[in-house]
Amino acid sequence: MMRFALILTTLVTGPPAPEIVQIAPSRAVMIGQDGPEFDACGGLGRIISGAEDRLPVLSGPDQSAMVSGSLGRSTHVWLCEAEGEWQGIVYPSGEFQDVGDCRVSSPVAEPRAYDGPCQSGWVRARNIELLAG
Question: Which of 91, 121, 95 lies closest to 104, judged by CA?
Fold first, then answer.
């Protein structure tokens, strides 16, 4: 009888609802926020820690944002924008690309979203050691 009730309940109410996973929206890293007389990104840092050997780079300043890349320890990154515990970074990604290729070490006329040629994203600020800035 108990088995019949379970089957009947499942038929009447349907299967359990799927779990809904909320993904935080992407948010571009902004450059030039210190003004037109300063470099587009005000600091240079180095990745010092992360899960295992790689630190995930997220598409927004939120733990539930999508992973857009990952960085190994000691990777140099530009520090461009901060939000709470999160740091917006710009970093080289190609085999023949260097941190100097990212075009953020000179001023820009007004704040804007970073649009290349390097990659950008968000990591927890505690995983970065400040080198200059």
Answer: 91
- CATH number, domain containing residue 59: 2.30.30.40
Confidence at residue 51, expressed as pLDDT on a 0 to 100 scale:
55
- Domain limits for position 38: 26-132
User: Which amino acid makes up residue 50?
Assistant: G
* Beta carbons of 118 and 101 less than 8 angstroms apart: yes
Let me know if residue 76 belongs to a domain.
Answer: yes
Is 19 a member of any domain?
no
Give me the amino acid identity at 114: Y
Domain assignment present for residue 10? The answer is no
The list of the chain residues with pLDDT below 70 reads 1-24, 50-52, 96, 133
Closest CA to 113 of 43, 74, 59, 38: 59
What is the pTM for the complete model shown?
0.78
